[in-house]
Each structure stands twice: as structure tokens, then as C-alpha cells.
């Protein structure tokens, strides 16, 4: 089926085989003419299945043979992520929480507790909300803006909105809650590991260029937290204070 979605200020036409992509993207549907178009083939779906099999072996997880309709949603977003680089926008595998008009991105390896931590914000920080709980897009423009997307993990926490990104936080488990500034060079390996890495050299160079620009313009932090309510309060007090 054919439809158009608007993400990160770009109208994206989607030609899909199954309805699951349309259902996933229902909050982002627009009647505007597309700026770019993505189409998915059965070969693209087979490629996503091979990626899933490979990652399962690397991570030591049991391989789950997802249906083609679900794998198509991954193939669509992979193609979108590649094309969005032309709009100075890139994908990261992280969680973003915001308060009013300021957002912070929390990054860590899978299983470290990103979702648990941002839920602490929702429960303890007034006016907080999740921009995206899994795969947001970051646009490097006059401001650095992080956008919600339909691809938001199994919890589905997302909002069709763009919010100014005010910092990136490396999340670690700890007994005592503590947050401190860190250098871009210290956080760079994590950022590269958590960002979408395209196959072509040209696109990969563009992605790295955007990450370096990100590092030049926003602050970075290391948060050690015990996943109790005080962890969110400790983080928010420091992050909010640094933006005045």
C-alpha cells in the first residue's frame, strides 16, 4: 500500500507490501506530497531476517523468526535512516525524555535500563514526557532537534514532536546516584556504537560528520544510578541547572 508520513520535518512516501507499517505509522500520516519515497521488496525483508539471525548469534540470544510483516517495518526504517542523512538527520538507538521544551537523550547498551530510568522521570518529574523510547532521529540545524518516530521499541513510547536536544547522558548502573560532565572523546565510541551505521562509505562519512557536529555543540554526561526515584531527580537537577 502507498501512504505518506512526516518525520523530522520530511514527508516520506512509503510503498509497503503489508499493512503493519501503515498501522505502526498512523500517528505520522500526512496528506502532503512526499519529499522522498521508500519501497520495500521481498529481498529487503529477507535481508532483515539475516541481520536478525546474525545479531542473535553475536548477542547469544535465541533466534526469533519474526513474520515478514514485522521485518518489513525494520526494512522501511533502515531505508528512511539512509535517506535522512541527506537532510542532516541521523538515527540513534537510545531513549529521549523531555520536560517542556528541553530534551535529553540517554544512551547505553541494551539491557542497561534506559527505559526503566526514563519511567522514573515520568513518575517523579512534573511535565516530563517521552519523545521516543528507542529509535529517535536527531537533526543538526540551527538548533539540534530530536524527533519522535513510530519506531519506539516494544513499549511504544513516542510522541510526534520535535524538541531541542540539550544534552546526552551515558547511563551506567551504580549504588550511589552521581552525574558528571564528560568529554566528547570519552563518549564518542558509545555514540558510534549506538548510531545507525550505513553500508556505503559516503553515507558513513556523513553520519560521522553529523556526530562530530553534535559533539561540538551539546554537553555530555555520565550518570551512575541505582534505578530508584532519586536517580531521576539527581539527573534532572544537574541537567536542568546546566541550561539555566
Provide a descriptive summary of the structure in words.
This protein starts with a strand and ends with a helix. The protein has helices spanning 20-24, 42-59, 68-84, 114-124, 184-194, 201-217, 229-242; strands spanning 2-7, 10-15, 36-39, 89-91, 95-99, 102-107, 128-132, 137-140, 144-147, 162-173, 178-182, 220-225. The chain is an alpha+beta fold and 244 residues long. The protein is globular and about 50 Å long. Helix content is 38%, strand content 27%. The strands form two sheets. Strands 4, 5, 6, 7, 8, 9, 10, 11 and 12 form a nine-stranded mixed β-sheet that branches.
Our Rg estimate from Cα atoms comes to: 18 Å
* Uncertain stretches: none
Structural class: alpha+beta
Helix content: 25-40%
Number of strands: 12
**Mean pLDDT, all residues:** 93
How much of the polypeptide forms β-strand, as a percent range? 25-35%
Order of helices and strands: EEHEHHEEEHEEEEEHHEH
Largest sheet: 9 strands, mixed
Spatial shape: globular
Cα-to-Cα separation, first versus last residue? 48 Å
Task: Please give a handful of descriptors for the protein shown.
244 residues, nine-stranded mixed beta sheet, three-stranded mixed beta sheet
Amino acid at each position: 500500500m502507498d501512504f505518506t508520513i512526516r518525520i523530522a520535518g520530511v514527508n516520506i512516501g512509503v510503498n509497503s507490501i503489508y499493512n503493519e507499517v501503515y498501522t505502526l505509522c498512523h500517528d505520522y500520516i500526512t496528506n502532503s506530497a512526499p519529499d522522498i519515497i521508500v519501497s520495500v521488496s521481498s529481498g529487503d525483508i529477507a535481508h532483515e531476517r539475516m541481520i536478525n539471525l546474525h545479531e542473535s548469534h553475536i548477542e547469544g540470544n535465541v533466534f526469533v523468526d519474526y513474520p515478514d510483516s514485522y521485518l518489513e517495518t525494520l526494512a522501511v526504517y533502515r531505508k528512511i535512516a539512509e535517506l535522512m542523512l541527506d537532510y542532516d538527520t541521523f538515527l540513534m538507538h537510545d531513549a529521549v525524555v523531555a520536560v517542556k521544551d528541553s530534551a535529553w537523550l540517554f544512551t547505553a547498551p541494551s539491557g542497561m535500563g534506559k527505559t526503566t530510568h526514563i519511567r522514573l522521570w515520568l513518575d517523579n518529574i512534573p511535565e516530563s514526557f517521552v519523545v521516543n523510547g528507542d529509535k529517535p532521529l536527531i537533526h543538526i540545524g540551527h538548533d539540534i532537534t530530536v524527533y519522535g518516530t513510530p519506531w519506539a521499541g516494544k513499549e511504544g513510547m513516542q510522541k510526534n514532536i520535535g524538541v531541542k536536544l540539550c544534552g546526552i547522558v551515558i547511563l551506567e548502573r551504580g549504588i550511589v546516584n552521581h552525574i558528571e560532565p564528560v568529554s566528547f572523546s570519552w563518549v564518542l565510541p558509545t555514540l558510534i556504537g549506538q548510531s545507525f551505521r550505513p553500508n556505503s562509505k559516503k553515507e558513513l562519512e556523513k553520519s560521522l560528520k553529523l556526530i562530530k557536529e553534535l559533539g561540538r555543540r551539546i554537553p555530555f554526561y555520565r550518570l551512575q544510578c541505582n534505578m530508584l526515584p532519586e536517580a531521576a531527580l539527581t539527573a534532572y537537577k544537574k541537567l536542568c541547572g546546566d541550561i539555566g
